[in-house]
Design a protein that fits this description.
The complex is a heterodimer of chains A (about 160) and B (about 260). Chain A is of the alpha/beta class and about 160 residues long. Chain A has two helices and eight strands. Chain A has two domains: about 35 residues; about 100 residues. Chain B has one domain. Chain B is elongated and about 65 Å long. The chains are: A alpha/beta (about 160), B mainly alpha (about 260). Chains A and B meet through helix 1 of A and helix 2, helix 6, helix 7 and helix 8 of B.
């Protein structure tokens, strides 16, 4: 079969266009999040308040990025209190994080993004897929600080 | 004295509306014609090659560099406020909403629109159009329609490619070179860019621009004065009118699409 040169190029052009559309749809506007190349294990942590934490925010130990936030859900514990249940995906390289580590929500700079900082504990057991970080501290909200300062603080 | 003034104004007004009318009739006759699928498709593909594929290089290179410049400038300014995580958002939104459709269309008018006008104008000058008519072939159908549709199809695709390449360029500068966090770059971008609101509206914009550019280009070609000077004037007019229409229309489209968001 004789292939027409023009048709080959036009086909290439259209395929390139469709690839761009797919990139804009999936990667740029995030229609789906099947994009996940890093393999890791999942750890849960629940926080009283996550502030501005978002899916794909980073998880750090001593400032080094070790993973990402995978999902954020609202959760109610047995006392009826609402908590934010955050699932973290931690890279497989970092598989020796003690089980009694604590997680806190930090802010990059004064107005920057929120991210999770893990402070390693002392336990001999390590975090594995499905384990939970028990010790958490909530986000420090600038609005709360200002209102406390303005009202004079609540004891 | 005053009478001559009124005469001039009246003459220009009438000739302006005559032009618009002739252009509308031309394009109407070219588009709404008995379709001829098999041979029409072959001609259309050849025109998409000439209009779209050959514009690919300029679109790829300029898109890449515009993305890189946005990355560099955006980073310099955002990092002053410690907000360099918002770099992806800045690049993606400005590309997808405004710069992609508008600069893509301006480049397209310069690269493909002028070529269309010159080609059709030369056909008219060398009396190819009249000889076609003598042979009983409708030049509107044979020459104008495939070129118009080729422009209409190519520009939205080119704009998509332009956007994607620019975002990759911004990624290379922002993340790979300047060290913005990878997850914050894509994560903030995905949070703020909405497929329906931003990407699809950008495509609608470029579709409108494509119709306007192709229309102006083919009509200026058909309507050119059949001399070498006439062709050069028609080509200039194509680029100037297209650019003005793109920038003017863009304001109205933006006002309708993104008002208040």
């Amino acid at each position: 079969m004789k292939l027409n040169r023009f048709e080959i190029w036009v086909g290439f052009f259209v395929v390139l266009g469709i690839a761009s559309l797919l990139m804009l749809a999936l990667q740029v506007s995030g229609l789906s999040n099947f994009y996940n190349t890093e393999s890791g294990y999942e750890v849960k942590a629940s926080f009283a308040n996550i502030g501005g934490l978002k899916v794909r925010s980073k998880v750090t130990i001593s400032g080094v990025t070790v993973g990402r936030v995978v999902s954020i859900a609202l959760d109610q514990n047995q006392y009826g209190e609402y908590n934010a249940l955050v699932t973290l995906s931690i890279n497989d390289h970092f598989n020796k994080i003690p089980e009694d580590s604590s997680a806190k929500i930090l802010t990059a700079g004064l107005l920057g993004d929120n991210y999770i900082g893990i402070v390693p504990g002392q336990a001999e057991e390590y975090l594995k897929n499905g384990s939970t970080l028990e010790l958490t501290s909530q986000a420090m909200l600038l609005e709360d600080l200002i209102s406390k300062f303005a009202v004079g603080g609540e004891k | 004295m005053l009478v001559t003034y009124f005469y001039n104004v009246g003459h220009r007004t009438i000739s302006f509306f005559e032009d618009v009318g002739r252009a509308s009739v031309t394009i109407f006759n070219a588009i709404f014609n008995k379709p001829e699928f098999v041979r029409g498709t072959a001609r259309l593909i050849k025109q998409i090659y000439a209009v779209g594929v050959l514009s690919l290089l300029v679109i790829l290179v300029s898109g890449f560099f515009i993305g890189m410049v946005l990355g560099l400038q955006g980073y310099t300014i955002l990092s002053k406020f410690g907000a360099d995580q918002a770099l992806g958002e800045l690049i993606a939104l400005s590309m997808v909403r405004e710069l992609g459709p508008v600069i893509g269309a301006l480049l397209f008018a310069g690269r493909a629109g002028s070529a269309l006008t010159a080609e059709i104008g030369l056909m008219k000058t060398t009396e190819q159009l009249s000889s076609m008519e003598m042979m009983g072939i409708d030049p509107l159908h044979r020459i104008i329609a495939p070129r118009f549709w080729a422009g209409q199809i190519s520009l939205p695709i080119l704009t998509l490619i332009f956007n994607a390449v620019a975002i990759i360029g911004g990624y290379l500068v922002g993340v790979v070179w300047l060290g913005v966090d990878d997850g914050a770059f894509w994560g903030n971008m995905q949070l703020s860019v909405d497929f329906r609101e931003d990407v699809v509206n950008g495509i609608i914009k470029s579709t409108v621009f494509a119709a306007v550019i192709s229309w102006i280009a083919v009509f200026q070609g058909v309507d050119s004065i059949p001399t070498s000077e006439g062709i050069s004037r028609a080509t200039t007019r194509t680029v100037v009118y297209s650019s003005l229409c793109i920038l003017g229309l863009d304001f109205f489209l933006t006002a309708v699409m993104f008002r208040g968001t």
